[in-house]
Amino acid sequence: MSGENALNLPEDLKARALQNARQATPAEALAPLRADALAALEAAAFPGRKTEAWKYTSLYALTDGHLAARAEGAAPADLPVLSEYRLVIVNGRLDETHTALPEGVTLGRAARHLDGLTTPFAFYNGAALDDAVTLEVAANADVAAPVQVLHVAAGDAPSHCNVRLEVNLGSGSRLTLIEQYLARGPVLTNAVTAIRAADNAHLTHYRLQADGGDSLHIGTLLLQQTGVSRIDSYQLMAGNRLRRNDVRAFLDKSGAELNMHGVFVARERSHIDNQLCVEHRVPDCTSNQVYRGLAGEKGRAVLNGRIHIHPGAKGTLAELSNKNLLLNAGAEIDTKPELEIYNDDVKCAHGATVGQLDAMQQFYLQSRGISAAEAKRMLSLGFVNELIMGLPDQAVADWAQPWIAAELGERPVADGEAA
Amino acid sequence: MLEIRDLHASVAGQPILKGLNLTVKPGEVHAIMGPNGSGKSTLANVLAGRDNYEITGGEALFDGKSLADMEPEDRARLGLFLAFQYPVEIPGVSNMEFLKAALEATRAAQGKEEWDSVTLLRKAREACKQVDLDAQFLKRGVNEGFSGGEKKRNEIMQMMLMEPKLALLDETDSGLDIDALQTVAKGVNSLRSPERGIVLVTHYQRLLDYIVPDYVHVLSGGKIIKSGGKELALELEQHGYGWLTGGQNGGNDKEDQTA
Ligand SMILES: Nc1ncnc2c1ncn2[C@@H]1O[C@H](COP(=O)(O)OP(=O)(O)OP(=O)(O)O)[C@@H](O)[C@H]1O
Ligand SMILES: [Mg+2]
């Protein structure tokens, strides 16, 4: 298999990405986007050791050669069903046999040029797309049942797929979107999701990334609140070999409100890197972010929460809270709020902590006959319980509860590692 | 059921208990009084198995088994219960979930029949009622935001459900209003039985009007320096500890400065 060279990894990745992009034969609807994205990719540099935004995340895993092959595996038979309305995208291509959409939501197979993408992976995504899915929610459509979009990636050997989802909420519309990622095997999912909300639109958004193990995920979530809209986003993430999420939100019309909630868990040797950036570009918008992270064994998690309040964005309310729990000494979490505020008339609060299990709480539980391992599990569950209990859709809550319980269960202690 | 012989123990390396003897037989109620810092909570924590509370000499046997190297959960499963002087808040873990885990673990270990969730809920509600705690407290995080008195009642509520063989109550009366004191005393009295031992740590003779002890001990400077019947508590109430400790405060802090 053709691997990439670790020494020149950024250059090698770029060369490989460009080669793939130039060979791609996209559908006609994707051609204009592809030309834009290719130009951006040509101008971009892939991150190396010294790239600040990738300080904690090495791309070394990609020396296995993921970019050299496209994922071709078959989707597993037992795909999770969280709604009667769903789309299944396998290795970046829509599997039309599953498609069911509610009234008010129409499916398109195009993609538009997106402002606000930053990573070379996002450019590569646009430059080498095989397919794209767009959901248009009609103005004033009040869609009661959730729409589940399942992104499946499967392969037995190192390979990758590019997946792209765009959702446009018309004015006065209402939608619940469940984005779920499922990878099997050593596959890199290179994802871009872009959501645009017009005036009086309300989106409840879930981003479920429970695919752990040897899969990789590099994704961008772009939220564009072009109207006086409200987005409530819930992001649940398990660590895998490499998980990197860039979330970028633009509050572009006064009165827009964004709420983001996230839980991330990195156990064993897994990795999660969250790069959040909320752009307040106009006055009187509100953003509220609450993230909780856990890491155990040799797990590694990162959260960088940037809040950028532009000079004209007076009356901004922006909050970010990120509390983290280390389950043992070998785990690591790096969290950093990053505020850039260019006017005085704002209310901005942020807090980030990294702590350990409380010995007194643990003793209290054990003094009631609860084993040390169970006490640990109860306390770590308790740490994220509020967010899990706060999931507004029953189908998602029913999925999330066993997921988090399993994610926080006991793990074998690796060699020479303190408990 | 509890045999403590010449017990020496340190907290974080600091010797606190210095040759303590105490025997509790089934059916007995013992009260331990003594100045602040004399080692009462240390004794309770040593018996319950808290980290960093280390037995350095002598022995503590519970039903003939040495507690020295036993995990806290194993002590609880054998039927030892500590009502904490300062109950711990655990946000995110509901009281009910906590009780369920505790009762599952201890009842299974003690060969008692398992309670299904309906039975458990019914029992928990009854126990709440007995200590005058609204059943809503079952849904809240363990001790989370509870008032001082509510925390103490929550301890007794747990004790009533767990039906321990030996209950250690560390200042359960502190911070209780007059009515709550009677409620808690009633709860404790309802657990008095020929098979069960109870050790009450208290500063106030008043509690002993409601829960009449068989023995009263004075713990000072890490040892029991006097034992007697319930009339000893009345004497202490009148005269303080000075006549027993020879003017020393009996706490550990002064003595240990030379160590
Ligand atoms: N972690 C610790 N490190 C050092 N000294 C400690 C520690 N915990 C307790 N001590 C000391 O041990 C001594 C006994 O404390 P303990 O809590 O047992 O007293 P007590 O008799 O329960 O007092 P009170 O009536 O105030 O509750 C005190 O001098 C206290 O400061
Ligand atoms: Mg005490």
TrEMBL record, chain A:
Signal sequence coordinates = none
Q: Which Pfam families match?
A: SUFBD_core
- InterPro entries in the record, alphabetically? Fe-S_cluster_assembly_SufBD (IPR055346), SUF_FeS_clus_asmbl_SufBD_core (IPR000825), SUF_FeS_clus_asmbl_SufBD_sf (IPR037284), SUF_FeS_clus_asmbl_SufD (IPR011542)
- Start and end residues of each SUF system FeS cluster assembly SufBD core domain: 161-383
Q: Which PANTHER family does its entry note?
A: PROTEIN ABCI7, CHLOROPLASTIC
Q: List the protein's name.
A: Fe-S cluster assembly protein SufD
Q: What is the lineage of its organism?
A: Bacteria, Pseudomonadati, Pseudomonadota, Gammaproteobacteria, Oceanospirillales
From TrEMBL, chain B:
Cross-referenced PROSITE patterns? ABC_TRANSPORTER_2
What keywords would UniProt list here? ATP-binding, Nucleotide-binding
Task: Give the Gene3D superfamilies listed for this entry.
Answer: P-loop containing nucleotide triphosphate hydrolases
Q: Which CDD domains match?
A: ABC_FeS_Assembly
Q: Which SUPFAM superfamilies match?
A: P-loop containing nucleoside triphosphate hydrolases (SSF52540)
Q: Which residues form the ABC transporter domain?
A: 2-246
Q: Which family does it belong to?
A: Belongs to the ABC transporter superfamily. Ycf16 family.
What is the protein name for this chain? Fe-S cluster assembly ATPase SufC
Species annotation:
Alloalcanivorax gelatiniphagus
What are the top taxonomic ranks of the organism?
Bacteria, Pseudomonadati, Pseudomonadota, Gammaproteobacteria, Oceanospirillales
- Gene name, per UniProt, is sufC
